[in-house]
Design brief:
single chain, 436 residues, alpha+beta, 11 helices
Length: 436
């Protein structure tokens, strides 16, 4: 969780038994007064300032006499580009994940029309415009708020549309894991949409627009809501924390890494993947429930041994700061490993998994309490990789064999989706698949 399984994106402003453990083993256990329409007119007149990891951030000057949007509302990510937005975009404060199944009788033609509608709506909303005819005005007074909308295809989509020959081998179903307690009704799906924004109303507005656009072509299969710390909530940018209070995402791959491209993006020319997946990525989505009552019974020192990092600052137990390289061989005065052999941060390290790595970009979730007051809360784990069989799968298999954290989490839903590259100007997402 702190290093690999319970993740976060690189450019974020932000990440069981109780018996005595053996030596060297962790104990298990609103923006101002400029409207969205005025923002659009201003952006068209002044242009956009491009930059920031994972996308283009646009800042529109307010007309004379108008109150400018706050920095939170004015953040803009571009819809068109080499890659889809929402993958290396900095983590947002609010998120929605939703899967759809094509309606009975709907096929390739209906899917193409749907992706065309969805892409147009996403482009409009990400620019701060109304969704189109019948806009609900939910986010009328807000700026784009770094909204992103990302689209993917599930394994079942290809049979439904007669495109089985275009289905990537990497989209084969994930293997079973011993820690899985999966609800099939909340797993997989023909189509997947990820929505993220730094304002809750902007995110909901996009969710509602996407759902309305589906019309008679597709029906919601499952939907999940998530959140992260808001940008600017801390004195300085720092790695996010998850609901266990742990700094989460310290060793996430960064676009500046020399091997980032090959780990995260499908190459433009490759023998394994179909041409329509060029510049895309594969996403694994897992709803991971945290058993917070059990976790919170542990002392801070016990929690740190489960993770392998200090809770206060995310530094490895072997010493240093958050980004200090972990010393896996360091021992204490009694000869016990300082970072326990089954510590989560040790097990998930790429150098402990044949180099396997994935870009983690999660949202936390809380869906209320049960009759006994137990919270239904945890992580909407979202990880990106060029090949899930070389990214997610080997790491999860190793976690299955002895991660100290596994006593405190439960995998309740799962999905794997092929997310194609970004749409060029005048294109819609998936056009090269559906019209190729």
């Amino acid at each position: 969780m702190a290093d690999q399984t319970l993740p976060q994106a690189p450019a974020s402003g932000a990440p069981d038994s109780r018996e005595a453990p053996a030596a060297g083993t962790a104990r298990p256990g609103a923006a101002g007064g400029i409207s969205r329409r005025k923002l659009l007119g201003t952006a068209g007149a002044t242009g956009l300032v491009l930059g920031a990891a994972g996308g283009a951030a646009g800042y529109a000057a307010a007309p004379a006499g108008a109150t400018p949007l706050t920095s939170l509302g004015e953040g803009r990510v571009m819809f068109h580009g080499k890659h889809q937005p929402g993958i290396i975009t900095p983590m947002q404060a609010r998120g929605h994940l939703v899967a759809f199944d094509l309606a009975p009788g709907a096929g390739r033609k209906e899917a193409a029309a749907l992706l065309r509608r969805w892409s147009d709506t996403a482009r409009r909303l990400m620019a701060g415009e109304p969704a189109g005819a019948g806009d609900t005005d939910v986010a009328r007074d807000a700026g784009p708020s770094s909204l992103t909308v990302t689209f993917g295809f599930g394994h079942s989509f290809f049979a439904r549309t007669g495109l089985e020959k275009q289905r990537p081998v990497a989209l084969d179903p994930l293997p079973d894991f011993s820690s899985d307690r999966l609800d099939k009704a909340r797993s997989n799906g023909d189509l997947w949409v990820q929505i993220g924004a730094d304002d809750a109303l902007v995110a909901f507005h996009a969710l509602r627009a996407i759902q309305k656009d589906a019309g008679s072509a597709a029906r919601v299969r499952w939907q999940m809501n998530g959140f992260n710390r808001s940008p600017g909530a801390t004195a300085h940018p720092m790695t996010a924390r998850n609901l266990m209070g742990q700094v989460d995402g310290t060793r996430n791959p960064k676009p500046s890494d020399t091997d980032f491209e090959q780990r995260i993006w499908v190459p433009e020319s490759g023998a394994k993947d179909p041409a329509w997946m060029a510049n895309g990525s594969y996403v694994v989505v897992r709803r991971i429930r945290m058993l917070l009552d059990d976790w919170e019974e542990l002392s801070s020192a016990e929690q740190e041994r489960v993770i392998g990092r200090r809770k206060a600052d995310g530094a490895p137990l072997s010493g240093g700061g958050e980004t200090t390289e972990m010393d896996l061989e360091k021992t204490d005065r009694d000869g016990n490993l300082v970072v326990p052999i089954n510590a989560h941060a040790r097990i998930t390290r790429p150098d402990q998994n044949g180099g396997a790595a994935m870009l983690r970009r999660p949202f936390s979730y809380h869906d209320g309490f049960d009759a006994d007051g137990v919270p239904d809360a945890g992580l909407l784990f979202i990880c990106w990789q060029a090949d899930p069989l070389r990214g997610f799968v080997p790491v999860q298999r190793k976690l299955d064999r002895g991660d100290a954290l596994s006593a405190f989490v439960r995998h309740e839903a799962s999905g794997l989706f092929a997310v194609p590259g970004g749409a060029a100007e005048g294109e819609y997402v998936g056009q090269r698949l559906l019209e190729g």
